[in-house]
Design goal:
single chain, alpha/beta, Amino acid/polyamine transporter I, Rossmann fold, ten-stranded mixed β-sheet, 9% strand
Length: 671
């Protein structure tokens, strides 16, 4: 579910997807407010004419804004509670009711049209565009919100059976039915619905809210007038229901991705309906309903937002198709790329025209985006990008559709370490999309003797042969690069930079003296990619990993890298992941409870279903982690950013790596 938000997330990025989802959520909320007010105005019109009032037109309180707001509130809350009680269905009575009324209006209009002389019809249609082409463009921009209903279908895609087949058919049928009803009705209104001596333009200007009803009255009498009023009530109610449902599903999808607060993703314990997002959507609609006296600018902004979202959808459709499309069979746009190009240009042109004609719509849209950007970067970005990194690591389609082709560079020096490094590289590389480049750097012979050439060649052959054997065992097809350089660390940095690698995987012997680790720091400072350093005992293999320990502390600078690593590992292995937090001995119960809550959030974000939290109170943090590491197969630590006073590998990290019963992987980001 999620509609254009989900589409944008699959093809663009999580940040752009947030912008799309946030502004669409607001647009659907504004649409719900407009339809609630529309229902209230037609309901008041109907109530005023009931034959129960002593005074014609009913008492004065019927015309008060408070009464209209009350009706709009009742309708909004009523549909919200109905959607909480039952997710599927709803609104069928209103939809079929308005369709039946529209068909009756069209049939009566066609009968009147047949009886009308041709010259009169021609007169009413002359001029065809009274306000010119600019007037047509303006009308299209203003009314776009009224014909975007087919977009609502995609927002509930996750709740539809056989969505690949059902959603395209539903969109085509809904558009076809709408055009089959609205086009004849509008033609009838513009011809036989206009009183003698008037034009459709003058009738619209003098009676903007009841123009259709008056036109129906002109060719059907009072019956036509009331049929339009009743159909308007049905239409606004069904649209209100649809907007509330669509807005809540967008909020639900965003909350599940943490691009909105995760609390909005909570479902009803029995019915499975998105209660939290429905409460938030309804609450926001009621605030706008009561706090904003004139929602016309917001309505124009909603139309502008839908135009922009459709233009973006056309662009993403082109990008998705160019990048290979989904691996799942589904609908494919015909006449590609002509259809999305023309559609995108048309939507963009209408959006630009709308901004020029109604500057307030552009201002409201920009203000909404500014508020959303402030919310995202101050409150939501960290968790959203952590969850996105985990999902991306597990979903090759997502990586491919975003146009990425990540490369993992694995320098191999010791043949004995090759199996472990190759296995970890296999986990880090996204299947069918990512690439693994195994690098072997050999020293140039100091002498030009033939026997020296043989020694160098044999050493390179041993490394490449072991790496190739391990790759075949893992089902990988990596690339191999053999180079010759006097300084292997500079050569690794050069290859990483020239090949644009996304990840660099290095091997480390934890017994290495600290003074011999400076080349790691020099390399770390000269590259711009993710760095993982694997310290594993001889004979270690990735498939041996089941228990993973993740100590948590510090400022969370490794959260995204850690989420990507855990997502990659869980794609291949059945893991049990423990997030460990050690608090000082003077921590109280509130501190422990807070730490447990934070760890539970991490479990939900980084390892849902396979993670657990553990909080231990002790003043000896290293000893606690050391003891727990003896019971795990893989220990995940963070690399420090080296400074004058701080080394890449802390003494504690090296101590833990030496104490670990399995392997230790340390992760960081190069400068």
């Amino acid at each position: 579910s999620g509609g254009a938000y989900t589409f944008g997330k699959r093809v663009l990025s999580i940040r752009l997807a947030f912008a799309i989802g946030w502004i669409l959520w607001l647009a659907y909320i504004v649409g719900a407010v407009l339809y609630a007010l529309g229902f209230a105005s037609y309901a008041v019109l109907l109530v005023k004419t009931l034959p129960v009032w002593a005074v014609e037109g009913g008492p004065a309180w019927l015309s008060h804004r408070a009464f209209s707001l009350g009706l709009a509130t009742v309708a909004t809350c009523g549909y919200a509670f109905a959607l909480i009680r039952k997710s599927a269905g709803g609104g069928s009575v209103e939809t079929w009711g308005k369709l039946a009324v529209f068909i009756a209006l069209v049939i009566a209009g066609l009968i009147a049209l047949v009886k009308t002389p041709g010259p009169e019809i021609t007169t009413q249609l002359t001029p065809l565009l009274p306000s010119g082409f600019s007037g047509l463009m303006m009308a299209m921009g203003f009314t776009f919100i009224a014909v975007q209903g087919f977009d609502l279908i995609a927002t509930v895609g996750g709740e539809i059976k056989d969505p690949q087949r059902t959603i395209p058919r539903a969109m085509m049928i809904s558009l076809g039915v709408a055009m089959a009803v609205y086009l004849p009705l509008l033609f009838i209104v513009a011809t036989v619905g206009v009183p003698p001596g008037e034009s459709i333009e003058s009738l619209s200007r003098s009676h903007p809210e009841t123009m259709i009803a008056l036109a129906a009255k002109n060719y059907m009498g009072p019956t036509g007038y009331w049929l339009v009023v009743i159909s308007a009530i049905f239409a606004t109610l069904s649209a209100l229901h649809a907007c509330l449902m669509a807005a809540s599903r967008i909020a639900l999808a965003m909350a599940q991705d943490r691009t909105l607060p995760y609390q909005l993703g909570k479902l009803h314990s029995e019915r499975g309906t998105p209660t939290a997002s429905l409460y938030a959507t309804t609450g926001a609609a009621l605030v706008i309903l009561f706090a904003v006296p004139d929602v016309s600018s917001a309505g124009a902004a909603a139309s502008l937002i839908f135009l922009i979202s459709f233009a973006i959808a056309h662009v993403t459709a082109i990008l998705a198709r160019r990048r290979g499309g989904s691996s799942q069979p589904g609908f494919r746009t015909p006449l590609f790329p002509l259809v999305p190009i023309l559609g995108g240009l048309a939507c963009t042109a209408l959006a630009l025209f709308q901004v020029i004609v109604v500057p307030a719509a552009g201002i409201v849209t920009l203000a909404g985006l500014a508020v959303g950007a402030l919310l995202y970067f101050t409150q939501l970005s960290t968790r959203a990008e952590v969850v996105d990194a985990r999902i991306e690591a597990k979903d090759p389609d997502l990586v491919r559709l975003r146009g990425r082709n990540p490369l993992v560079l694995v320098p191999v020096v010791n043949p004995d370490s090759a199996p472990g490094l190759v296995g970890m590289a296999n986990a880090l590389a996204v299947p069918n999309v990512g690439r693994v480049l195994i690098l072997s750097v050999v020293d140039p012979p100091k002498e030009q003797a033939t026997n020296q050439h043989g020694v160098v060649a044999q050493a390179a052959s041993n490394v490449v042969g072991q790496a190739l054997s391990s790759s075949m065992e893992s089902g990988m097809m990596p690339e191999f690069l053999l180079t010759m350089a006097s300084d292997p660390w500079d050569e690794i940095g050069r290859v990483a930079t020239n090949h644009g690698c996304e990840s660099l995987l290095l091997g480390l012997n934890p017994e290495t003296p600290p003074e011999n680790l400076k080349p790691f720091e020099r390399l770390f400072s000269n590259i711009d990619c993710d760095v993982s350093v694997l310290a594993a005992p001889s004979g270690w293999r990735l498939h041996q990993v089941h228990e993973v320990l993740v100590p948590i502390g510090g400022r969370g600078e490794h959260d995204t890298l850690r989420a990507r690593l855990l997502g990659s590992l869980s794609r291949l292995l059945e893991l049990r992941i423990t997030f460990l937090r050690v608090l000082p001995a003077n921590a109280n119960t509130d501190d422990v409870a807070q730490a447990e809550r934070e760890l539970n959030y991490l479990c939900d974000d980084k390892a849902p279903g396979i993670g657990r939290s553990e909080v231990i109170v002790s003043d000896d943090v290293t000893a606690v982690i050391e003891q727990r590491a003896e019971q795990t197969d893989l220990l995940i630590l963070g690399l420090q950013r080296p400074t004058r006073r701080r080394r890449l590998f802390s003494s504690v990290s090296l101590r833990l790596a030496r104490a670990s019963a399995g392997a230790t992987i340390m992760i960081g980001r190069g400068d």
